[in-house]
Automatic annotation (TrEMBL):
<dbReference type="InterPro" id="IPR005625">
    <property type="entry name" value="PepSY-ass_TM"/>
</dbReference>
<feature type="transmembrane region" description="Helical">
    <location>
        <begin position="354"/>
        <end position="375"/>
    </location>
</feature>
<feature type="transmembrane region" description="Helical">
    <location>
        <begin position="457"/>
        <end position="476"/>
    </location>
</feature>
<dbReference type="Pfam" id="PF03929">
    <property type="entry name" value="PepSY_TM"/>
</dbReference>
<feature type="transmembrane region" description="Helical">
    <location>
        <begin position="20"/>
        <end position="42"/>
    </location>
</feature>
<feature type="transmembrane region" description="Helical">
    <location>
        <begin position="152"/>
        <end position="178"/>
    </location>
</feature>
<feature type="transmembrane region" description="Helical">
    <location>
        <begin position="199"/>
        <end position="221"/>
    </location>
</feature>
<protein>
    <submittedName>
        <fullName>Peptidase</fullName>
    </submittedName>
</protein>
<keyword id="KW-0472">Membrane</keyword>
<keyword id="KW-1133">Transmembrane helix</keyword>
<feature type="transmembrane region" description="Helical">
    <location>
        <begin position="488"/>
        <end position="508"/>
    </location>
</feature>
<feature type="transmembrane region" description="Helical">
    <location>
        <begin position="396"/>
        <end position="419"/>
    </location>
</feature>
<keyword id="KW-0812">Transmembrane</keyword>
<feature type="transmembrane region" description="Helical">
    <location>
        <begin position="431"/>
        <end position="450"/>
    </location>
</feature>
Amino acid sequence: MKISADILRTYQSVHTWTGITAGLLLFIGFFAGALTMFGSAIDDWATPPDYQLMQVPQGQHDALLRKAFTEHPDTLKNITISFEEGSSPIYWYGRGSARGFSLDDQMWHATLDTQGQLVSELRHVNELSMLIDYLHRSAGIIGEIGHDQAGVYVLGIAAFLYFIALVSGVIFLLPSLVKSFFALRKEKGASRFWLDSHNLVGIASLPFHIIIAITVVVFSFHDLFYDGLSQVYGNKPLFGGDEHHQEVRYDINALPNLSEIQKRVEQYAPGYEIKSINFRGLSGKHPSASVAIVSDDSLMRGPHNDFLFMHPFTLEIDTSSVTNGQGEQGVWGTVVTTFFGLHFGSYGGELGRWLYFIMGLGGAFLFYSGNLIWLEKRRKKQQSAQSKSSKFMANLTVGVCLGSAIGIAGAFALSKWLTLGTWNINVAYMWIYYSLFFAALTGAFTLGAARFSIIGLYVFSALCLIVPLTSLWGLALPNAGIWVPNSLADFGIEAGAIGFALAGMLACKRVKHRVYHGEENSIWYCQKLTSKVSSAHLA
């Protein structure tokens, strides 16, 4: 396929500058986004075993629910019944809500004791997975615009540039794609190997990256899209359904048993497992029930489950707002559900989550490697030492990328230790992340990209190793207040931390080799460190 050299240069320039402009923000988004695939497992791992109260036997949830209504009238406004093992049977927010990332959420948990009496406890919500999701959606940019984080809109712009980079990258690679797709040419130097790896990861996961780029833009600017579509649809509901609902107050004693609600859900959505039921406004004029349902065989609108909405007293299902494909959402509702499902990877079960996790980390590698490849290529074109602007970009790339990884690793490393104190653990998470992030950024600009890469990778690996070492401490000293993994998911988190530590040490070994033996004037070259190594060899 013959394409003009001028056209190829133009597309390469577009690819380079759009990638560099958006790359650092997207690195944080992709690295944190990969971890969100196991958000539920992270919360379970970070939460002490006694945080959740004892689940009640099947059939006793109704009695528990009625006692909660009597002793805690606020539960009529909002309460969740969970049927999952390892979860409190009922819970409701004492402060805050399930929407958004809040540092001071408090939740009541309740169960029945052996005498059938209500036992309830108020506790802070551990938001470790929400911190990671916050970084995934906003890249950690502080501030708000309207009702959302400012970083969400910034990341939306970055995703649009990212989509342009994807398209332009494919076009300028077309002439050499077939012959060099699987080529990893180590013999032609480290720079060529990095470039081949960058191209391989980018092309192999292209459909995934296109999906993520488009869905991030939609999520970031959905309010603007809805406003634009409303100009076409007028007063007609965009997602189907009737905007007029009958206002009726029901006696709480008329609430059907949970078994009746479960039976109605199973009739409407066969093949789905019911995780929980959330009641809202039971004493008001617009009562509702949101049922969390799960199926690994279909797209789900939520990260971990789908939803079915119904009237809790009449058991009438709101087919216009059902998100599992069984309802009558209309064209736009189906489109939105598809966008959510494709972005969250909430289909295909564990295999789907692992694939999204691997491709998410691959995406982070693309942005990190892309910036460094550009810096090396620029130096060779200029045939001179690195310019001040190149050094600045190298320091910024290493500082931001390693800083975000170190910050997240630090939150995991100290998570169990933080539970030994009385402070707000979520505020502590934020302090840990941003302190480590800005310390890494300062270190990169103070020591330079090459030297700090070695130090930063050692720190990252050490923090990752603290995760399993903390559990070993808890195993050796059972009375120390540190708990040990007690489920396959918990062991998975610990194994993942070990895997990241090994990857960090392997990367550090390669960086040290380039620093000590690489090309002079490369961004990885450090004259002081190279001189020390040479002196040691002479000695």
